[in-house]
Every structure is written in structure tokens, then in C-alpha cells.
Amino acid sequence: MDFALFDSFQGLIQEGKLKEAIAQAECKLRSLETTYFHVVLGTSILYQQQNVMTWLDAFYQSVSPRMPVGALYVEMNAFDINTEEWYFDGFAYEEAGTREDAEWLTNWSADTTTEEHLVLGGFESVQEAFETYFYEEKVSENLEQAHDVAEILVILRIQELLEEVHQVAESRGLAWGAIPLLVTAHGYDLLHQIK
């Protein structure tokens, strides 16, 4: 894993430049020799906005009568090794901590998390690419770089989806549209905070 590459994209996300980050990641992948990870280019899952909105709103409605909700966190499963099914889990917190010290996200309980995860569609060919990579015996430097950029692009695309959902919730005056929503994938520090 190229930590410097991940750090550079984390910097863009912290500056609120998610669309620029997506464009840069796609440009970086295009600059590499074509691999099976190039199927991620142009992949958008924004069409799932309504499903995510319904799921997240139902979660907020189930938790908010029991506790004040000051932040929501949506985490994608460890998609790079769990290639059969990609999904979201949601978590609620009484108050938001900082993105810089995200240890507070580990303080959750069973009654402050979604009962059912939300399965994502639209990434099937990308899931196949990650599965193929998982079983590779020899990995070239180019393929490893493509893998790292594809990981970043998957995370950026889920963050793009959740940012759109949060904006719609805010425009509709939904209570959870006014609180921070944090998004990443399990095991990744590439954390986006949507306010």
C-alpha cells in the first residue's frame, strides 16, 4: 500500500475537494498501463441515492428516540478482501469527535448501529477485479499501483454517494441532514466528514 498516495488524497478530502480527488485518482489510474482495475474508471453509484437515503433515515428514526444523535458514521465493509458482497453499516453517536483523532468512532454499541447492512450494487466488475488480485501469485509494480488507486477510487465514490445523500437530507430539512456524517471503508484512514 502506498501510504503517501493515500495521505495526498486524505489531504484533498480534508480540504473539501472530493470531486477534485476523484478526478485526480481517475487521472492517476489512466496514467498507468491498463489492468483489470481500470474497470473502476467512470463507475458511479449515485443512482443508489434513494436506497441509501431511505436506509439512513430509517436508522436515524430508530435511534433518535433513544438518544440524542450528534453524528452518524457510515462504514463500507473491508471490500478489498471481502469481494463477494460490498455493503454499508451505520453507527450513531451522541456527539461528534474530530476527524483528526477518529478513535471515538470505535465507541459504539449494538443498539447504536444498524441492524441490517445496506448491500451496494454497481461495483460488480470492480469486485471481480479485487477478487482476481487477491489470488495473484506475482504482482507487478504497475498492478500494485493500479490496485492502490482503485482502492482510493472505491472509497471516494462511496463518499461521493453519501455526500449527495446528506445534501438532499439537509435540503429536505431532515434532522440528520444537520449533523456531521463521516464515511470511509473498514480498515482505511481515508475519512470524509460531511457537515
Spell out the key features of this protein:
5 helices, 195 residues, alpha+beta, 12% strand
Instruction: Describe the sheet with the most strands.
Output: 5 strands, mixed
CA radius of gyration is: 17 Å
Residue stretches low in confidence (pLDDT < 50, at least 5 long) are none
How confident overall, as mean pLDDT?
Answer: 93
Number of helices: 5
Helix percent reads 40-55%
SS-derived structural category: alpha+beta
Distance from first to last alpha carbon? 29 Å
Strand content: 5-15%
Question: Which oligomeric state applies?
Answer: single chain
Number of domains: 1
| Number of beta-strand segments | 5
Main sheet strand line-up? 3-2-1-4-5
- Helix and strand pattern: HHHEEEHHEE
Mind explaining what this structure looks like?
With 195 residues, the protein is of the alpha+beta class. It has one domain. Strands 3-2-1-4-5 form a five-stranded mixed sheet. A hairpin with a 6-residue loop joins strand 4 and strand 5. The radius of gyration is 17 Å and the shape is globular.
